[in-house]
From TrEMBL:
PANTHER family: GAMMA-BUTYROBETAINE HYDROXYLASE-RELATED, TAUD_TFDA-LIKE DOMAIN-CONTAINING PROTEIN
Organism: Duganella guangzhouensis
Domain of life: Bacteria
The organism's taxonomic lineage, starting at the top: Bacteria, Pseudomonadati, Pseudomonadota, Betaproteobacteria, Burkholderiales
Name of the featured protein: TauD/TfdA family dioxygenase
Pfam families, per database record: TauD
Amino acid sequence: MMELMTRFERTAPEGSELPVLITPAYAGEPLLVAQARLAAEIDTHLKLVGGVLLRGFSVPSVQDFQQFAAGFGHPLLNYEFASTPRSSVGSGVYTSTEYPAHQHIPLHNEQAYTREWPMKIWFHSVLSAVSGGETPIADSRAIYRRMPEHIRARFAPGMRYVRNYGEFDLPWQQVFNTENRADVETFCRRTRIEWEWKEDDGLRTTQLCQAIAIHPHTGDKVWFNQGHLFHVSNLQPEVRESLEELCGIENLPRNVFYADGSIIPDEVFDEIRAVLAAETVSFPWQDGDVLMLDNMLAAHARAPFKGPRKVVVAMAEPHGNLDLF
């Protein structure tokens, strides 16, 4: 039997255990074969640490990855109310966010800009990049603890996301997976989203969501939102200037406000981004790796890369707080 490796190449803040590394019992052990003996151990690590990296196992195909993710007792989820472009690989598996290779995708918890999200998320490195392309992660509990108290207090009532779909962002048909306005309205009504149909088949939505959440199983408080991604300060300065001039604040493709609708100063998100940077854990992918995260306890990101790269994603175990506000 191979010993469980406890150290590997990574950068991390002091005290971080993310991710727990698990390796095969023997060379070439299929991940699907190992799943039965590892399931309880993985569950324990997810609750305590927030994520595990399964490295060195045989994962011959994306279908094997799909079966592994589906083997934890919950059907894999479709990617609904999307904020970024992805393509379905089939049976609940999707490509990772299809942004250009030179772009950095900041840390975030999947679908934390909504009031329904997956509790589990898996990443499978089918092909690692020649350079870069890491999937940095961070402890959402540690982010909450490090966040300045004045920010935690101001965001305690939540934050208000505003999206204008169409020319400068994803079309609403892609986001809601339908061409039917009635279907959109049904979804919005169920998920507590305000909507407004605009000229030229446009749509604006507004939703009050959590900024801080309590994990349903561990009871821990976590920083759980995507405010720093939606806020206008996330845009390149020249892009921001152009869009503000063209659209005005109200019609920007996406933005986020305090729960009462007031503007959040850029400086607030400067502080938030500094906390996220301080809690970042990063490690290079190896072909065949599978990373499994508790989506509320661990955030994830994507580093720029060069050369071909293929990482696929699966999500499961829906959870939400539709009755909170």
